[in-house]
Design goal:
The protein is of the alpha+beta class and 167 residues long. It folds into two domains: 110 residues, Rossmann fold, CATH 3.40.50; 39 residues. It contains three helices and nine strands; from the N terminus they run E-E-E-E-E-E-E-E-H-E-H-H. The radius of gyration is 18 Å and the shape is globular.
């Protein structure tokens, strides 16, 4: 079975965009996550607080039972490669879960967190979704991108396989 190292739980959401203008105080903030629909928040600089603008209606589904984990899978050469896992909170990762794996790593492109409501049907049935942030992606800078040569392609494939076997 593959070796996974849990580094942290992903934050509830991350900021994708911030829009501000010098003529108005505050800002418009676009947040996204692996387990919730995007939200647009209005930041009030005077009160130092943010509130939902309602620009994007909430989804009519409850996603509170799901979580995302950021782990690392050890490749054949010892490099720890990031893997984002989306699952039901009470689901044990024992290597027996059906897993929808998405992976790409080239030209410095990275997978950023986003939510697709279609995933809920898969997650409700005990499935797991995983994003392999393999060599060539920009998650860890140029060192990971430059490691994408021919000699590391088999390591990348092995990393993905080991990561999935651990789910």
């Amino acid at each position: 079975m593959g070796e996974l190292s849990r580094s942290r739980s992903m934050p509830v959401s991350r900021v994708r965009n911030i829009f501000a203008t010098p003529s108005e105080s505050g800002a418009l903030i676009h947040t996204v996550s692996w387990t919730t629909a995007p939200r647009w928040l209005a930041y009030d600089a005077t009160r130092k607080s943010a509130s939902d603008t309602g620009l994007q209606p909430p989804l009519p589904i409850d996603t509170s039972g799901y979580e995302s984990l950021e782990v690392k899978a050890k490749s054949a050469d010892g490099t720890m490669v990031p893997l984002s896992i989306i699952r039901a909170k009470n689901l044990k990762l024992d290597g027996n879960r059906p897993t929808h794996l998405i992976g790409y790593g080239a030209y410095g492109l990275s997978y950023e967190s986003y939510f697709d409501p279609v995933w809920v049907a898969w997650l409700e049935r005990g499935g797991v979704i995983a994003f392999a942030h393999v060599r060539g992606g920009g998650e860890y800078g140029e060192k990971m991108v430059s490691g994408q040569g021919t000699s590391s392609r088999s390591s990348t494939r092995l990393t993905i396989l080991l990561g999935v076997l651990s789910i």
